Amino acid sequence: MASRNTNINILSQIDKPTLVLYIILVLWGWVTIYAASYNFDDTSIFSMDSRAGKQLLWMGLTTILAFGILSIDHRKFEAYAYPLYALTILILIITIFIAPNIKGSHSWIVLGPIRVQPAEFSKFTVALCLARFISTYNFTLKNLSNLVKAILLIIVPALIIILQRETGSALVYLAFTLVLFREGMSGLILLTGVGSITYFILALKYAETFWGITCVGDLLVLTLILSVLVMMTTSRYKRRGVFKIMLIICSSIALISGIINIFTPVNWVYTLYAMILSISIYTFILSVKSNTIKLLLPIGIAAASILFMLSVNYMFNNVLEPHQQSRIKVSFGMEDDPRGVGYNVNQSKIAIGSGGFFGKGYLAGTQTKLKYVPEQDTDFIFCTVGEEFGFVGSTFLILLYVSLVLRIITLAERQRDAFARVYGYCVASIFIFHIVINLGMVLGISPVIGIPLPFFSYGGSSLWSFTILLFILLRIDASRTERGY
Q: CA–CA separation, 154 vs 170, rounded Å?
């Protein structure tokens, strides 16, 4: 009787706005899966031979799962965070060897008619483990050892998933860096990450574009590196005349290169290298004179940035799979392949555009009904919403997602202990990454990496994964009254 009363109390304390948003998204996702996989010969949404019927079965099992999570003592999530993480790592490793080859990846465990993707479930165990680690007594990310350990907790499962040849799922773990930033990680690290992405795009996109004998990609990246070096040095060594001297150094080198260029073509990449080297030497001299070791950081970042730039082509050509390379090239406008790699995105944009302002109506979409869009009930399911519900329906769906993410952040912020807060931000970060990247690839503004849209894409693993993530947070939040908050 006591257990039953406890469950009833938890249900009364659960955050109602979040629960309502969850139910709306799951139900809308279900009817959209039916629309995306609609078969003219079978009009029943409940047919177990259709994907909508199978998704309904998963939804029923998910309801049981949700109630099960709510019945668990909230303290056990923190207590068993490390064992769950270890178990996840073990399962991910085993999956590499026992999973069959499905579309080039070894990430699905096949159990008869059921296929399970362990990588989906590892998200919540990593979130719990990271929350447990960060919430330890006297923890601070300013401690280098703590920062390295936190990053390793994130990177290890991601690397194993890459070995499964499931790069898209591995990239989701980048979302956890937002959590580290929220918990005190230096903004410089986040800036470094953004800079690395920018360098990668510029170096790759303009690698074959030349201005005379100068590679435009390298020129752009080195210009950014020089700018960052100058700005960091002037901001850390706050004395008059420093910027003026650096400007004179760069102008002198540029003038000498211009004079040489009159007689023989100059590779301006080497000019930028000379500027960066000269400014680095000047910065080092300032560091020695003022006995300020923090001035060495800009030099280190510049050196690391150059090494990263020089490794871009190698990483792209030797680390990424050929189909991943093609997807990135199409996304960056380096290739036009409307019948090959770019076919999915091209058909998706046609479907969304054909929906107009109000859409064609439910089950009235032609592009999706005639199966022009591949994977339209999984990764590209948003195109069905765009075609049938138009701009209005698509905007409303995005607003629902924004409301859900903001609500999750609200739940995280109102927690009084670090474990609950960090876990809440882990959940928010994962949802943000999935939503932004999925919509971006469907609209053709980000590479196609194959990650599902929360609660909409067909699949039991995806639905269970997002449900577990969300309901653990709801259970932890509901226990605030038990903890006297």
A: 10
Instruction: Identify the residue whose tokens are 């022009």.
Output: 372
Q: Is the pTM of this model over 0.85?
A: no
User: How crowded is residue 211: how many other Cβ atoms within 10 Å of its Cβ?
Assistant: 11
Q: Which of 364, 382, 361, 363 is nearest to 373 (CA)?
A: 382
What residues have CB less than 8 Å from 302, skipping those under 6 apart? 225, 226, 228, 229, 276, 280
Quick one: DSSP state of residue 444? T
- For residues 298 and 304, give the distance between their C-alpha atoms in angstroms, rounded to a whole number: 10
C-alpha–C-alpha distance, residues 475 and 106, integer Å: 33
pLDDT digits (tens), the chain, 485 positions: 445 555 557 777 899 999 999 999 999 999 999 988 877 666 678 888 788 889 999 999 999 999 999 999 989 999 999 999 999 999 999 999 988 887 778 888 887 777 888 888 899 999 999 999 999 888 888 888 888 899 999 999 999 998 888 888 888 998 998 898 888 777 777 777 778 888 888 888 888 888 888 998 899 999 999 998 888 888 777 777 888 899 999 999 999 999 999 989 999 999 999 999 999 999 888 888 877 777 778 888 889 889 988 888 777 777 777 766 776 776 666 665 555 556 777 888 888 888 888 889 888 877 877 777 777 888 889 999 999 999 999 999 999 999 999 999 999 999 888 999 999 999 999 999 999 999 988 887 777 777 899 999 998 889 999 999 999 999 999 887 655 44
For the chain, the structural domain boundaries read 2-185+334-478, 195-320
Is 95 in contact with 110 (CB distance < 8 Å)? no
User: What DSSP letter does each residue of 123-143 carry, written as one string?
Assistant: HHHHHHHHHHHHTSTT--TTS
Alpha carbons within 13 angstroms on the beta-carbon side of residue 245 total: 15
DSSP string across 48-116: TTSHHHHHHHHHHHHHHHHHHHHTS-THHHHHTHHHHHHHHHHHHHHHHHHS--BTTB---EEETTEEE
Q: For the CA atoms of the chain, what is the radius of gyration?
A: 26
